[in-house]
Each structure stands twice: as structure tokens, then as C-alpha cells.
Amino acid sequence: AAILEVDHLSKRYGSGTSALNDVSLDINEGEIVALLGPNGAGKTTLISIICGLVVPTSGTVRVGGHDIRTDWRAARKMIGLVPQEIALEPFEKVIDCVRYTRGLYGLPPDEAYVEQLLRSLALWDKREARTRELSGGMKRRVLIAKALSHRPKVLFLDEPTAGVDVTLRREMWTVVRELRAQGVTIILTTHYLEEAEDMADRIGVINHGQLLLMRPKSELMGEFGKKR
Ligand code: ADP
Ligand code: ADP
């Protein structure tokens, strides 16, 4: 069943920029989908609309059947977003970041879940560390832990490996696969074909605000003349 349904979505910013033009896509529960496209293609706009942060000019988005505009609260609960920018409170402890984010959703404390989450992201040993003491890779994992603090069904990763080195990139891929094994549906944006190939079940190509194609990885590899 489709956990995410995007229908005829368009966005024109006040500046006149047409950032998205009639984009439709369905994403099934448990899939990993990569949205591939160059800078300015419209990837962040698409994710921002789905997460309810930007209002579309036209079109609809449903998450788990909940319309993002008319049933925002229910839709938002099903979504976790890992933003591109690393924005953490430097003096906050790792474990408190996750507890605090749960609080923002109005959820009661759940120490067992917080522990499970931090362990699954290999952050448990660092739970008492201040975020400013962490390496770049660990900071990114804290952002993921925050995004998963309310147990969303769908996790968005906006350019999870932008500006990180090869080692860190591979570490992120491992984390993504582990999350999928736990049943989380994952949608990520990237401008690396290699990354899309390595991580995703399906790859969508976006350019100039249009979804040019959306195919299972196996089919796409054939089109690019590669065999795996
Ligand atoms: P909207 O119509 O959605 O309100 P606006 O065009 O008025 O969008 O811009 C909203 C904000 O985004 C403004 O603060 C603007 O400075 C900023 N902004 C404008 N152009 C860009 C851009 N290319 N990339 C990122 N932010 C931008
Ligand atoms: P991507 O994430 O693929 O780099 P974006 O969704 O950020 O693409 O941008 C798509 C287009 O919309 C670009 O032309 C960008 O400059 C423009 N844009 C993005 N955000 C805003 C904004 N807030 N206001 C005006 N224009 C924007």
C-alpha cells in the first residue's frame, strides 16, 4: 500500500520561480526511494511541501491517508525530517536532544525507546556528550535520532551526505539500510547517482521542477548501460 501519495503538485514561489511543475508519485511502505537531481531542481521544495513546511500552489499530498493540508497534525506525526543543515544546540547532551524533540510532539517520555533509538544509531555510548563534542558523522546521526524520536513511518533525508567525505558517506548508507530493516520508509535526496544506486529501491529523477522518471533501480541501471 502507498504510504505517501503525491498528486499533481506544483509550486510557484512569490518571486515567480516555478520550483515544481505537476509532480505525482506514490511511495510504498518499506521502500527506499532516492530523488536525484542537480541543485535547483526542486528536491527541497518537494520535501518541504510533503513535510507541511511549504504550502503548494496546487496539488495534494497524503501521508498514511492523511491530507497534509486538511489533516496536518495526523500527517505530520507520520513524518520525520532530517534537514540538510546541521542545527543542534552545542551544549545540549545527545540524550536530551532526543527527549526534547519527543516533548515538542507532545509525547510522554519513553526512556526505553530513546535508549533503543540511540543504540540503533551507535550513539548510546555518547548519550552524555554535548553535541559540540561530536564528529560530523555523529552529529548527523543525532539529527536522525531527533527525526525518529516520535516513531514516524516515513523518514526524509535531505542530501544526507552533502559535503561529507567518502568514509562518512558509507557510514550513512549503513545507517539507512539498518533503518529500513526496522521498517522505516525512507526518501532521500541526492545529486550523486552512485548514492542513489547504492541505497535506493527506486530512483526518481527531478530536473527543472519536473519528475522526469521514477523507476526501480534494476530498470534504471539497464538504461544507463550498467549491469549489476
Ligand atoms: P513565498 O511565495 O513562498 O513566500 P518568497 O519568494 O516570498 O516565497 O520567498 C520566501 C523566502 O525565501 C524569502 O525570505 C526569500 O528571501 C527566500 N528565498 C528567495 N529566493 C530563494 C532561493 N532561491 N533559495 C532559497 N530561499 C530563497
Ligand atoms: P533543490 O533542493 O533541488 O536544490 P530547491 O527546491 O531548493 O531545489 O529549489 C528549486 C527552485 O526554487 C530553485 O530555482 C530555487 O532557487 C527556488 N527556490 C527555492 N526556495 C525558494 C524560496 N523560498 N523562494 C523563492 N525561490 C525558491
From TrEMBL:
UniProt superkingdom: Bacteria
Keyword Transport: yes
GO molecular function: ATP binding; ATP hydrolysis activity
Sequence ranges assigned to domain ABC transporter in this UniProt record: 4-228
Alphabetically ordered keywords of this record: ATP-binding, Nucleotide-binding, Transport
Name listed for the protein in its UniProt record: ABC-2 type transport system ATP-binding protein
Species annotation: Paracoccus sulfuroxidans
